[in-house]
From TrEMBL:
Listed name of the protein: HutD family protein
Superkingdom to which the source organism belongs: Bacteria
Source organism per UniProt: Marinomonas primoryensis
Entry-linked InterPro entries: RmlC-like_jellyroll (IPR014710), RmlC_Cupin_sf (IPR011051), Uncharacterised_HutD/Ves (IPR010282)
PANTHER family per record: PROTEIN VES (PTHR37943:SF1)
Length: 203
């Protein structure tokens, strides 16, 4: 199966990602997907390499989900604006941490650099459901007005069956934007399923 920008499945490879400097100037990120509206950034998905210990950029107003992609992992220590303290220990690929973008977050690497996937959504009207996927894994896609995005990020070369009839092979680090209802099955590989939903109550 071939995906293109005019079909119900849009496939983006790592070569197409936009290279951006970190907000704190200490590194760079590969921007995979960005959605903005009249109020600014609503949600963003990006991939980054963390090579040194350090404090994360401040993204107050956004909720973050960070997924470990490769490397020996890291410890995350968070301090909220109210002084609450929390920690996450990411050891294995697809381990994840959820925290407020406005937290003061310190990353301490376990043993060398790591790569991670970041999903950030606006706290006031958006939420993200992020699921680690290990083959075999099945999921149903149902597109409705409150669902802003359904997508799959391949952390390895992956084979996916669509509607039990067609197979597609995704390169490592590629991103599949799913725009129609359907049944998908991850037959080989690992990755991350991401759905972004609107939480704004209709007037």
């Amino acid at each position: 199966m071939t995906f293109n920008t005019h079909s119900n499945y849009q496939l983006t490879t790592q070569n197409d990602y936009k290279r951006m400097p970190w907000k704190n100037g200490l590194g760079e990120t590969l921007e995979i997907y960005l959605s903005e509206d009249e109020s600014g950034q609503r949600y963003r998905i990006s991939q980054a390499a963390v090579k040194d210990d350090g404090v994360f950029s401040n993204f107050e107003g956004l909720s973050r989900t960070l997924v470990l992609l490769s490397g020996q992992g890291m410890q995350l220590s968070h301090k909220s604006i109210k002084g609450n303290v929390a920690e996450h220990c990411l050891k294995s690929p697809l381990d994840m941490a959820r925290f407020a973008g406005g937290d003061e977050t310190l990353a301490t690497l376990n043993n060398g650099s790591i790569e991670d996937l970041n999903i950030m959504v606006r706290e006031t009207d958006t939420k993200a459901n992020v699921t680690a996927c290990f083959a075999p894994f099945n999921w149903e896609i149902k597109i409705y007005k409150d669902r802003l995005l359904s997508a799959f990020y391949a952390n390895q070369t992956c084979t996916i069956t669509v509607n039990e009839t067609e197979n597609v092979v995704l390169e490592k680090n590629s991103f599949l934007n799913i725009k129609q209802n359907g049944t998908l099955c991850l037959m080989e590989g690992t990755g991350v399923f991401i759905e972004v939903l609107s939480t704004k109550v209709a007037e």
